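tokens incoming
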């Protein structure tokens, strides 16, 4: 049987769904795995299969059944703040699961391309721009787990010549992003202020990030998979502070965010938070002769999310008023 499937492990989050839909649009065959076989309403026309990432026999059976050409690993507990409370789960899901997949690929078919979704959280507090050569000193259990998974993915490439890739992903948003994350919360805060003059509490608003659009990231990710196995950075090089993003969101309704926002609430402060994060995003693009595209970021990103929420009327759900 000719290998043609794209297997997305842990594919029910924003990256898995976005990538799956993009691959389907390009006429590729896609299988999404999940801890359960329950269907996500956001996943359209893509087969979902149950997979236990801690069971190598189950992994082997999955690969034998679908004979994938490419495997994408997006599984794992993905919240840096929550990782302090769920250290074991964070390490097991991000590292042990990743290693198990690599072990099975090594014994089953070394020609399979494997991509691990790494994270900029691996680097910790960095004063300048982050490049692939920047020393890695994670400050939270999530970053530690991602670093171990990054290293084992690279080890299998260098030691056993497996076709493995590490995508170092910076903050990414989409219409599928869970509402408790900062950017969706900012957009909902603006809507709540406009609709009911409700004030919203936040943690540290002085942080600065390169907020990326998930569809942009997935398009670039596929281009890198057509290059030689390697580590690469996925970002846009456009940092904005949380306060700047608030200005965009409240500006959509001609409102001053300072009238509707409380900051530095200890409930929302992240332990060992990183104030600024910037990337040498162009480094990997130039090396692989991949042309830059027009990224979605800043005001455009905020407006896309707000328009979507208004259309879907998420703000009418009382649970969102408590965020």
């Amino acid at each position: 049987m000719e290998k043609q499937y794209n297997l997305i492990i842990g594919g029910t989050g924003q990256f898995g769904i976005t990538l799956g839909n993009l691959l389907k649009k390009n006429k590729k065959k896609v299988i999404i795995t999940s801890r359960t076989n329950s269907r996500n309403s956001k996943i359209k026309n893509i087969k979902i299969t149950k997979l236990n990432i801690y069971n190598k026999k189950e992994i082997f059976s999955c690969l034998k059944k679908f004979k994938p050409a490419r495997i994408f690993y997006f599984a794992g507990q993905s919240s840096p703040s929550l990782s302090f409370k769920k250290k074991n789960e964070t390490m097991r899901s991000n590292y042990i699961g990743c290693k198990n997949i690599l072990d099975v690929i090594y014994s089953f078919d070394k020609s399979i391309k494997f991509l691990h979704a790494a994270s900029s959280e691996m680097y910790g507090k960095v004063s300048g721009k982050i490049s692939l050569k920047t020393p890695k000193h994670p400050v939270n259990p999530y970053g530690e787990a991602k670093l171990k998974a990054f290293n084992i993915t690279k080890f299998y490439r260098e030691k056993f010549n497996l076709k493995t890739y590490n995508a170092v992903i910076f903050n990414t948003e989409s219409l599928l992003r869970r509402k408790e994350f900062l950017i969706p919360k900012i957009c909902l805060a603006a809507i709540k202020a406009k609709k009911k003059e409700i004030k919203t509490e936040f943690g540290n608003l002085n942080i600065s990030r390169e907020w990326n659009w998930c569809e942009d990231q997935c398009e670039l990710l596929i281009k890198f998979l057509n290059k030689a196995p390697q580590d690469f950075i996925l970002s846009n090089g456009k940092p904005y502070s949380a306060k700047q993003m608030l200005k965009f969101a409240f500006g959509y309704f001609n409102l001053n965010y300072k009238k509707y926002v409380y900051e530095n609430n200890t409930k929302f402060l992240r332990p060992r938070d990183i104030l600024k994060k910037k990337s040498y995003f162009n480094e990997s693009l130039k090396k692989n002769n991949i042309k830059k595209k027009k990224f979605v970021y800043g005001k455009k990103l905020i407006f896309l999310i707000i328009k979507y929420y208004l259309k879907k009327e998420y703000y009418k759900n009382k649970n969102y008023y408590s965020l």
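note: The first helix runs from residue 14 to 25.
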